[in-house]
Every structure is written in C-alpha cells, then in structure tokens.
Design a protein that fits this description.
28% helix, alpha/beta, 27% strand, five-stranded parallel β-sheet, 239 residues, single chain, 5 helices, six-stranded parallel β-sheet
C-alpha cells in the first residue's frame, strides 16, 4: 500500500479496502480480534475514503507474512479450570452457608464457594442457588431447601451429578435432572428439604461464559457466510 503517513488524504481504492478487510479476516481467524471488534473494523473499512481513515484500522495488527514475536511453547503452571480446581476441599466452609427470603428473594450466584451443606428458606418469596460458576467445599454438597408458599431454584452446570431427595406436600421437587451421569471428578449435588404449597426446581444450564462463546461462534459463522456470499456475488459480477 502507498505510504499512508505521507499521503493521509489520498483517496483509497476498492483494492486497498479489500486488502485491509483481508487483514481483519486473518486477525479474526487467529483470535487477535473478537467478533464485535471485527464487525466494527470491517464496517469502518468499507466506509473509509482515504488512506488516513484506513491506517488506524489495522495499526495494531500484523500484515500478512510479517513475522510476529515468538511465543514460548513451554507449558507454564496455570489453573486448568477443570473440576479438580473447583473442588477446594479442606476446611473451607464456603462463602455462604444459608439464605432466607420472607416475602422477598435471595440469590447466590457467580464465583462463590458452595459449602458442604447450604440451607435456604423461602416463605412467600423465592430464591436462586446458582452453582454454574461456583467452587465446591467438597466433592459432595447438599442444598437443603425449604419452600413454604414460595420457590427455590437450583441451577447446576453440565457434568454435575444431581440427586433429589426432597419431600413435597401440595408442592414438589423437580426430579428431571436426576439420572444424568456426572463427568469424571465432577461434584455431586444433593437437593433435599421440604416444599409446602411451593416448589424446588432444578435446572441444568451452561455457564454464562460458555453461552457467550457459543453466541460468538454463531455470529462468526453468520458473518463468514455473509462474506462468502458477498465474494460469490462479486465474482459473478466480474464475469
């Protein structure tokens, strides 16, 4: 490309814009840009009219064929993010061991440590015990839920074994997630307690980070299909 710094006001051609777009596609494929950044920069690329407008778009990205700093291939000691790291064991009593909602609500979610036994009570109210991003004080934890004219929702991530032992009177406990084998080394969650004119539900959901990753993958695939379609249309116009 022409020296951008010397001629920032020189009009850019379609070929110049396409070269910048190609650098962005390579950066997306290599993980240097996420989907949102890629879309923003690609939109700015096709709107650019001069070299001065194109230059900042790829200033922090390597040109095709340019050598980049070497990355060490020696594995460093880092948290693996597996179940072993999330079961803290020992004397950890957990971040919180109980919760109460009386005509109100409670939530335990995010990065917290679930104790060996978590007691919760909901009366004319509701609560959520979300274990998707939680650490566990032991390989087996008990969620003891009492719901009187109210409800408690227990959310577990995929891979966790669930056992439901609660008793319902004019109410009930959700058993749908029982019987699903757990991953090797994953914790076991026992849901017990009592429900009267209320209910205790159990849901299995993906962690938020995983849901976001899947959304980004779908967006990327959609954008790649659009780009492929655009190239096909441009190719047919050239012929």
């Amino acid at each position: 490309m022409t020296d951008d710094a010397a001629v920032p006001d020189l009009r850019a051609s379609d070929a110049d814009r396409e070269r910048v777009a190609e650098i962005l596609r390579d950066a997306l494929a290599e993980g240097r840009l996420d989907m949102e950044e890629f879309e923003e920069r690609l939109d700015a690329t096709y709107k650019a009219r001069t070299y001065g407008e194109l230059t900042p778009i790829t200033r922090d990205l390597p040109d095709p064929g340019t050598a980049v700093p070497a990355v060490s291939l020696i594995k460093e000691t880092e948290p693996s993010g597996g179940w072993r790291d999330r079961i803290v064991g020992g004397d950890d009593a957990g971040t919180s061991s109980w919760a109460v909602a009386v005509m109100s609500g409670f939530q335990r979610r995010g990065r917290w440590t679930a104790p060996r036994r978590f007691n919760c009570f909901a009366f004319w109210g509701g609560g959520e015990v979300d274990l998707r991003e939680a650490y566990f004080a032991d390989r087996e934890v008990v969620v003891n839920a009492v719901a009187i004219m109210g409800g408690v929702e227990v959310v577990v991530p995929p891979g966790v074994e669930v056992v439901v032992r609660g008793i319902g009177v004019m109410g009930g406990f959700d058993h749908r997630e029982e019987g699903v084998p757990g991953d090797p080394g994953a914790p076991r969650v026992i849901v017990t307690g009592f429900a009267f004119w209320g209910g205790v539900g159990v849901q299995r959901k993906l962690p938020r980070a995983e849901k976001q990753r899947l959304r980004e993958e779908r967006r990327r695939e959609k954008l790649e299909r659009k780009e492929q379609r655009r190239r096909e249309l441009e190719g047919s116009d050239d012929r």
